[in-house]
What we know:
Structural class: mainly beta
Order of helices and strands: EEEEEEEEEEEEEEEEEEEEEEEEEEEEE
Strand content: over 45%
Helix content: under 10%
CATH architecture: 6 Propeller
Mean pLDDT: 97
Shape: globular
CATH class: Mainly Beta
Number of domains: 1
Number of strands: 29
CATH superfamily: TolB, C-terminal domain
Amino acid sequence: MTEIKTIATGLRFPEGPVAMKDGSIVLVEIERQTVTRVRPDGSTQVIAHTGGGPNGLAVGPDGAFYVCNNGGFMWRTEHNMLRPAGPASDYTGGRIERVDPATGAVTVLYDRCGAHKLLGPNDIVFDGLGGFYFTDLGKARARDRDWGGVYYALADGSKIVEVAHPVLTPNGIGLSPDGKTLYVAETETARLWAFDVLAPGVLAKEGFPSPHGGRLMAGLGGFQRFDSLAVDGVGNVCVATLVNGSVSVIAPGGGLIRQIAMPDMFCTNICFGGPDLRTAYLTLSGSGKLVSMTWPDPGLRLAHEF
Length: 306
């Protein structure tokens, strides 16, 4: 097994890593409510305080950071691990935010789609045309939970549309190397779904019995849960997998290729960086770490990143 190198510790439930061309990693600390830069030496710098629950993160066409803010969680520490434990007491809804990387100024772009409020935006991916897809996982309460959905929006704040609903706990989201397939990971079912992209914000839909129009690529079974994902350069979908603490690598045609074990049951996110995109950066959220390792295949260079 390739050595796992620890870059930073003491992070407060880190997620959403983005590899920057200066070698730093920008991520969110959900419990700390910040967008944070982690330098190669492990030191950190807070870029912005968003409040709520900054969750997914991506670089947009203007070089700004775009944040899926889930509205906030309550928190619990068990077995020396931090984890979410329901909506925050001051939760009022979710939102999509733009963060100025120079000033840290936070602007709310969207907090609803038409008449429907955003509930718990989670993960985000940009296409090459100035728009982005994002998942809204919703919130789980003591006796019920929300249906989630998938949305497409423009970075200038002018348009948002719902593209898939209802989805049970949609979390990770990504695009195939050619941009023609959208992938969505469901947390509670450990299922990966695919949608053909017909045009920006327009998805082809399967009929019944698909609950939302997606086609099933993989369903792991057992007690596993899917979190965020990244697509590598050969089209494999690499899904951070909770409970068993791993990254599940799923072939573009469907089916599990391998699982790469991580030393934290809350392995939540993966991104690729380095000069050849062969370095994987992973958030181990329960233990508050950012780690890296050499990956079997080069990663996919995302739109607008570097």
